[in-house]
């Protein structure tokens, strides 16, 4: 089995990247792979533990010190990553993310050692993401990132939309579409609260790109009785204060609340308590939280800016354009349904996720389609 070195933009508990990388490492370990994780925790969050990575060596207390974030430090960092690759005997370097010094350093070190490199951009090359700090990203593309993408053995993307975004900036990149997986809880674990208000939630970064303002405007328009809505996530752009002001101005303080980011175990626990999950994003390469909600038997409302059109065909959610008006219409439809009808939608979603996105089968695809051909 190849030994894998996974270099991640972040391994902070609660991050979207960790929601994908930690269970992938765990599943690959169960398939006999030797996996080493490296990356900064940052943002005040603890790093994922070795227990969560389930045997993958995540010596982050030491390794995180070799991951400065400035692009100018990438070459200096490359020697440290190359040393780690040699130390672990890595046969494949899998780079998660594209913009940090660690990402670039891992690509540089893999190329210098002649070790095959796999890159997962995690949505960082999607058009909306590229418009953020666009000048810096254009410079980085010219200096390193385009070369890294086109020199990689394969660029892993989680949807056809993400594949198009990669080829738009690196036309010669070799891409492979494999969705991220999800841990499917036992049926007994997917239980809604039996009394009190029904609950909806948005889980993710509290930034305008994720459509949080549209969701709040839609909720204010519908004002569903007997329901509460919570926003849970990081606030990197200090946008939560604006949402809080809107909540107060709209007199929604008793039914809408904002909470800081929580760890992965707490996310799973919260999802199991929901009646509805809303992801109103304006850009999404995958939308892990949609898969997690459906896996727990929770129906979803999401937008056409995400790759989840099949929720309509599977009758487990709503897929609408990313505007406040269309979100309001979907919310109004959802809250009018009896609890048992929403639960039935969630169960259909759970069956679909078990069939198509459960981690054991997805991890096997990573092994067969990405790693073993490189070994």
In a nutshell, what does this entry contain?
With 375 residues, the protein is α/β, with parallel strands linked by helices. The protein has helices at 16-30, 50-53, 60-63, 74-88, 101-113, 127-130, 134-151, 160-169, 212-222, 240-249, 264-272, 288-295, 310-313, 324-336, 339-356, 359-371; strands spanning 3-8, 34-38, 92-96, 117-120, 154-157, 175-177, 198-203, 227-232, 256-259, 276-279, 300-303, 317-320.
What does this structure look like?
The protein has helices at residues 16-30, 50-53, 60-63, 74-88, 101-113, 127-130, 134-151, 160-169, 212-222, 240-249, 264-272, 288-295, 310-313, 324-336, 339-356, 359-371, and strands spanning 3-8, 34-38, 92-96, 117-120, 154-157, 175-177, 198-203, 227-232, 256-259, 276-279, 300-303, 317-320. It is α/β, with parallel strands linked by helices and 375 residues long. It has 2 domains: 3-181 and 358-371, 3-Layer(aba) Sandwich (Rossmann fold), CATH 3.40.50.2000; 187-356, Rossmann fold. The strands form 2 sheets. The protein has a 6-stranded parallel β-sheet with strand order 2-1-3-4-5-6, with helices on both faces. It has a 6-stranded parallel β-sheet with strand order 9-8-7-10-11-12, with helices on both faces. Strand 1, helix 1 (16-30) and strand 2 (34-38) form a beta-alpha-beta unit. Helix 1 (16-30) packs across helix 16 (359-371) and helix 4 crosses helix 5 (101-113). Residues 43-72 have low confidence and may be disordered.
């Amino acid at each position: 089995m190849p030994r894998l070195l996974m270099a991640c933009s972040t391994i902070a508990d609660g991050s979207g990247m960790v929601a994908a990388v930690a269970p992938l490492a765990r599943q690959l370990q169960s398939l006999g792979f030797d996996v080493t994780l490296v990356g900064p925790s940052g943002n005040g969050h603890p790093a994922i533990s070795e227990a969560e990575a389930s045997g993958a060596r995540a010596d982050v207390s030491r390794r995180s010190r070799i991951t400065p974030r400035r692009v100018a430090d990438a070459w200096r960092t490359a020697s440290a990553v190359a040393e780690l690759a040699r130390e672990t005997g890595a046969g494949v370097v899998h780079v998660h993310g594209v913009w940090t010094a660690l990402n670039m350093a891992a690509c540089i070190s893999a190329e210098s050692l002649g070790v095959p490199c796999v890159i997962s951009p995690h949505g960082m090359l999607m058009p909306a993401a590229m418009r953020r700090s666009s000048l810096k990203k254009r410079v980085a593309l010219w200096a390193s990132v385009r070369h890294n993408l086109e020199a990689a053995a394969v660029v892993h993307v989680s949807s056809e939309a993400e594949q198009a975004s990669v080829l738009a900036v690196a036309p010669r990149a070799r891409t492979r579409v494999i969705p991220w997986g999800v841990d499917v809880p036992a049926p007994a674990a997917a239980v809604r609260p039996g009394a009190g208000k029904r609950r909806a939630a948005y889980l993710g970064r509290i930034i305008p790109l994720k459509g949080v303002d549209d969701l709040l405007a839609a909720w204010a328009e519908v004002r569903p009785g007997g329901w509460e809505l919570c926003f849970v996530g990081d606030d990197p752009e200090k946008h939560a204060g604006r949402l809080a002001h809107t909540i107060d101005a709209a007199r929604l303080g008793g039914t809408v609340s904002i909470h800081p980011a929580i760890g992965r175990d707490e996310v799973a626990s919260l999802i199991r308590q929901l009646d509805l999950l809303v992801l109103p994003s304006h850009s999404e390469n995958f939308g892990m939280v949609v898969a997690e909600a459906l896996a727990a038997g929770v129906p979803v409302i999401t937008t056409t800016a995400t790759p989840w059109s099949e929720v309509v065909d599977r009758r487990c959610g709503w897929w609408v354009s990313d505007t406040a008006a269309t979100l309001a219409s979907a919310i109004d439809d959802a809250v009018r349904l009896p609890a048992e009808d929403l639960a039935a939608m969630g169960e259909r979603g759970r069956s679909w996720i078990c069939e198509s996105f459960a981690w054991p089968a997805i991890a096997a695809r990573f092994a067969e389609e990405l790693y073993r051909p490189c070994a």
